[in-house]
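Revision sheet: structure tokens.
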Amino acid sequence: MKTFPGDLTPFTIPSSSRPLSAGVERLDNAGTPEKPSDAPSVAPPTVDDIPVALRETPDPAPRPRANVALLAGSLTVLGLMALAAGGYVALQMQRSQTATLATESPTPTTQTPTTAPSASPSADTLLGHFAYTEAPQSELAPIVPDGSIKMRKAAAKAFRDMTAAAQREGVSLVPISGFRSLADQKYLYFDVKADRNQDAEERAKVSAPPGYSEHHTGYAVDIGDGNTPALNLNPDFDKTAAYRWLKANANRYSFELSFPKGNRQGVSYEPWHWRYAGDIQSLKTFYKARGQK
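Predicted:
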């Protein structure tokens, strides 16, 4: 038995024990000797010894495609619903605007046709007569053999054709007056007015002031009946065969009555006064110039 200094308890070391290693005799910082481990040392496992489940890092789970497709389909449906809603709202707004316009629009009125053209507010009129420009001499042609009565060329030809047709039926259409210059009309209005002691309005009912007569245009003509001359330039002219023939056939030759009964110009009834309206110039002269379309 062997004892150590300071140790009162005897400690017996078997003789068969192996000598302590140098590490056992060395003290640590706490002054406590390390005891050797009786367990056998185990080497760390190699990579081949680690199970595959622990050694391989699993890949992240893929994102489900079904969810993506469902999301895309939902967005498409929502978009279609939004478009449909927008279209419905626009249609309702359009219907509302149409209804508003229909309510606010005035109802068109039917105009009653008149037998004679009426003056527009801007037309140049005087005592119920419209202003007309004097036809140039170069545009005139005779309608009687001696050339004393003339009309515009187109009107003159139509008048000659009309009188020839009436003559074949035994009716005599006699021209009394055709184209008149401003000087001619001045005499008929002012001089005759003075001779008959008429005022301006009274005279204007039977004769237009100079510059306002249809005779200036070369399209107007006063017609009498060669078989009953006593009724020429008389309201009773409408009782003659000539007038009856004109009423039945004058439109075939583009002639129309200028001043029928009750005309809106206020001019006296003149069954003998007819005018030609068979070309564009004559239409503009008698209709467009006075505001009729």
